[in-house]
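EI: anyone free to look at a 256-residue chain?
SC: sure, send it
EI:
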Amino acid sequence: MVRMDKVVSSAAAAVADVPSGSTLAVGGFGLCGIPAVLIRALLESGVSELEVVSNNAGVDDWGLGLLLGAGRLRRVVASYVGENSEFARQYLAGELEVELTPQGTLAERMRAGGSGIAAFYTRTGVGTQVAEGGMPWRYDAAGRVAIASPAKPTETFDGLDHVLERAIVADFGLVRAWKGDRHGNLVFRRATRNFNPLAAMCGRVTIAEVEHLVEPGELDPDDVHLPGVYVHRVVPLTPEQADDKRIERRTVRSRG
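SC: here you go
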């Protein structure tokens, strides 16, 4: 039975039942909108052998990069490696399994998982290793491909080839919202909306850290981006936690 008041006392309490070996869907894009407080709570809990589904794996010293650097991740399903040198090192050294997925396909796999759709066909990846298989998921210590992606079923619709993609359902979803109420209804601010609703939808148990907690009825239903039916636990952040945000890459120009 789902409680109506979903607020829990702390991030540590919210993730206390996340076991080693779990699959986590984690919201955010780069460092924008990531559930940084919940991630740190997981780090401090000591869980390991985690599989993470997220657009990327943070940076070396923030976000999912903290779990990665501590050796807590065994597998990552992502669309971007980018700014995390430790991510690249572990992957090339055979310490981490990585399933690189086209960004839109990843988003739709998560949405499908939360919508009860087992799989879907898409044009993205047709004619590439995404469909034909052979993408290196894991290397061995000598740099040889130890695990490669399998070929995926394809079908022709209206004269065009499509590849079948399986939905993603995670054990836990971790997200960050700008506002939320005690029932778990969430509002995301601007670009932080990114992967957060999708990560929440595809988690069997979804935990949301919320910058501003309001009482039920204070949110206009038309403003709610994610209804509380998808959210199981709400962690209200302190002002200090809410303000502790990183900029992934700062670009400035000289004056004058």
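EI: The two ends are 62 Å apart (CA to CA).
SC: 👍
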